[in-house]
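Record Response regulator transcription factor, 226 aa.
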Amino acid sequence: MTIRVLLADDQALLRSAFKVLVDSEPDMEVVGEASDGAQAVRLAKAQSADVVLMDIRMPGTDGLAATRMISDDPAMSHVRVVMLTTFEVDEYVVQSLRAGASGFLGKGAEPDELLGAIRIAAAGEALLSPAATKGLIARFLAQGDGPDGDAPARSERLDALTGREREVLVQVAGGHSNDEIAERLEVSPLTVKTHVNRAMAKLGARDRAQLVVIAYESGLVRPRGD
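=>
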């Protein structure tokens, strides 16, 4: 299966560099390039993209708004967005995840890291970012990065989870894979996957990245001071 990748960035030179990198891989191809968010939304749908590498800051419709449009469109429920940031510390990171992004990477990420992020996003398996991202997200959520009227509703939704689903959610928020969670909870990976899928359905989460944000927003997982 070939992963169809859309590049969305207002810098043509950067898009060209990403295109060469992505097209060099046998399991992925660039199916389109966009210089602003509105164009990215149109192309993501028209080209049936699997993963969109989306710059946060673009003229006109920015990456945050574009990600929300993609997330809200049922016809693009399979599309995964990886936000690209100039700086690792970006005030829009958590907003991007809330808008539906699967995660984010700094533009200075190593080629292997970027390619790995695309594959992980296409598989919908994990939060995409360097190891430090989890702590960064925790700090943003602890500080409060703006009003979020949906937070109380999300907190109440946790009541729908079973005890085991909560346990699994805590492990997911800790950045652990299904195999790691299975070992920690002494169950099979298939059982973990079932609990994750049920938690996603009950909480209205698109993927594991959304589960992580909800876990922190709801207070189920607390940021560690470091």
